[in-house]
Amino acid sequence: MSKRKLSRQQRWRIEKIQAERARRAEQLDARDADRLAAGEYGPEQPGRVIAHFGRTLDVGPEGEGDAVRCHLRANLEGLVTGDRVIWRAARDGSGVVVARAERDNVLERPDARGQLKPVAANIDQILIVFAVEPAPHANLIDRYLVAAEATGIAPVLVLNKIDLLPEAGGELRELLGRYEALGYPVVATTTARADGLTALLARLDGRTSVFVGQSGVGKSSLIDRLLPDEELRIGALSKDSRKGTHTTTTARLYRLPASDGGELIDSPGIREFGLVHLDEQQVTEGFIEFRDHLGRCRFRDCRHRHEPGCALLAAVERGEIHPERFASYRRIVDTLDES
Ligand SMILES: Nc1nc2c(ncn2[C@@H]2O[C@H](COP(=O)(O)OP(=O)(O)OP(=O)(O)O)[C@@H](O)[C@H]2O)c(=O)[nH]1
Ligand SMILES: [Zn+2]
């Protein structure tokens, strides 16, 4: 937390700005109430937040149709891209969002002050992209999986650049086999061949997805191929990402042209997902093959290191937990201790 104290004058200015904002929101809300009462808005209809800029949102109707620029009723706060909402169209082509539906799940990221803030909602799957080059460390994949499990959103492993894969597949194939055995879907892709995205497209169909993964694995290349018309915008997005400007950091929802209702939510912030802070319990539960064994250790506060009667260590002994996954678990927990 910042120790810097605000001067009285700064405090006064901030209070003044906040009061002005609140007054404007109230005015807008009073106007809405009048217009709603006067029947100037059409009937309530379901929609989905496509993008948001403060209190202004783009809302897409369910199914086909263009997005409508909407504002929010004053009693609605913190909507994010992907939220399902109820909105009403105005005669001038704008709209007003009147309610938010319950969220299935939400993706959060720490803001500048380290507080978790929602960035996107109602996501069906997190596509963890890694590549033949730069070669993935199993530990990094495990970190992403743990972070995904903590959100409750299903992870999918996407191995990109398979055009660079050696004939026999080598160690990477073995590594992937391990994750498939745990029940994680693995999809192989390449942007170097016309048919290199077939398996991915099938996976995206009918779902809302986000792409995450380390730099250089090919996220931009994959998204450019999936959204050819959006190429320029996406390109601009990734180039500007480090500047952190308002419009480029906001998450956007894209409908996939080639599929049946498949959607993509993307932003530089989302792509960096996986680097969030987790606690030890989340890490332990994030290793899905541990779950059957948890709560069975002799000591209730077992940390699964050298304790006698540790159910996890016994499962490693019996070959039910892969020793490398267990080593990876240890490494992740140890880095938590350092921070
Ligand atoms: N051989 C091969 N190269 C690829 C493939 N996909 C992407 N690349 C290359 O990999 C490099 C990195 O791709 P990007 O799409 O920029 O990767 P990114 O994950 O978006 O990286 P950041 O923007 O840094 O997060 C580029 O030089 C791409 O041309 C592929 O399927 N095969
Ligand atoms: Zn234990």
TrEMBL record:
Top EC category: hydrolase
Residues bound to Zn(2+): 297, 302, 304, 310
Domain CP-type G: 113-273
Cofactors: Zn(2+)
GO molecular function terms attached to this record: GTP binding; GTPase activity; metal ion binding; rRNA binding
One Pfam family named in its UniProt record: RsgA_GTPase
EC number: 3.6.1.-
Top-rank taxon, per record: Bacteria
Residues that, per the record, bind GTP: 160-163, 213-221
Keywords assigned: Cytoplasm, GTP-binding, Hydrolase, Metal-binding, Nucleotide-binding, Ribosome biogenesis, RNA-binding, rRNA-binding, Zinc
Any one GO BP annotation for this protein: ribosomal small subunit biogenesis
Gene Ontology annotations for the cellular component aspect, listed alphabetically: cytoplasm
Compartments where located: Cytoplasm
SUPFAM superfamilies: P-loop containing nucleoside triphosphate hydrolases
Cofactor binding summary note: Binds 1 zinc ion per subunit.
PROSITE patterns on file: ENGC_GTPASE (PS50936), G_CP (PS51721)
Domain (EngC GTPase): residue spans on this chain: 121-271
Complex formation: Monomer. Associates with 30S ribosomal subunit, binds 16S rRNA.
Summary of the function given for this chain in its UniProt record: One of several proteins that assist in the late maturation steps of the functional core of the 30S ribosomal subunit. Helps release RbfA from mature subunits. May play a role in the assembly of ribosomal proteins into the subunit. Circularly permuted GTPase that catalyzes slow GTP hydrolysis, GTPase activity is stimulated by the 30S ribosomal subunit.
Protein name, per record: Small ribosomal subunit biogenesis GTPase RsgA
Source organism: Halomonas heilongjiangensis
